[in-house]
Amino acid sequence: MKLCAFRIRNFRSITDTGWQNLSPDNITCLIGQNESGKTSILEGLRSFYTGSISEDVLRSDLSLPEISCRFNVKNGWLSDVTENPGSELKELLSELTAVELTRTWLPDFSSTIKVSGRISEYLDSLENAWGLYLNEVKSKLEKEIEEINKHKSRLDEILSCKADIIRKADPSTGKGMMGRMFRKSEGGIVERLPADQKHIFNDLVKEEESVRKILAGKKDIADAGLKYNSLLARLEETDRNL
Fold first, then answer.
1. For 2-109, CATH number?
2. Predicted confidence (pLDDT) per residue in 151-181, tens digit
3. For helices 176-191 and 117-169, what crossing angle results, to 10°?
4. Can you say whether the dihedral through the CA atoms of 85, 90, 94, 99 is positive or negative?
5. pTM score > 0.85 for this model?
6. Where are the domains of the chain?
7. DSSP secondary structure code for residue 10 in this structure
8. Phi and psi based region of residue 178 (left: phi greater than 0; alpha: psi -120 to 50; beta: remaining)
9. Measuring CA to CA, which residue among 27, 120, 123 is closest to residue 68?
10. What are the tens digits of pLDDT across the range 36-46?
């Protein structure tokens, strides 16, 4: 790897050098008046290499330095040193003859290096695509959960309607021991219902079976919804505590 260009921001007197290319003939001169920032450029490049800065490199607004360097690499070298790249990334890496790295500093003066340039743009596009996918999955899951809740509410209504019909036909049915006996003798009570009530009751039974079948088919989605709601609640709690 050979340095071919750099960009220094927020370092001593430097606000932003913009991208500056080094001469391809191995001779690069920094020419300028005294106190014009020539030494700051060299110190900035050294800080990029070492990762170390001190308070005296900060500008008056206390903005933290950001230094980027572009290196020439042999064609295909990036794909060779990258472990298990996907097909698209491998194709991109095989085309690149330069790599950009950017070192940024945190308030405690620790620093991180990230890949910038075309590789960063590609990875950002993947992250954006993944975010869109997750939002789509979230939307579909929430719609499914809403649909499941509607079916559950309808099932409760059906059971309540059935119980009302039986209770009106035989007021002795209710809670406790009589309620348990009612569940055992429900068939006999239904047979004694008036024709119109019996028809309504049987329709409710059919609808109950249909709703239970739908809910059984959506059990995995319902379980996923419970986990999703649990994780969402924990995330919101964490955000409140931050």
1. 3.40.50.300
2. 999 999 999 998 888 888 776 655 544 444 4
3. 80
4. negative
5. no
6. 2-109, 134-241
7. E
8. alpha
9. 120
10. 678 899 999 99
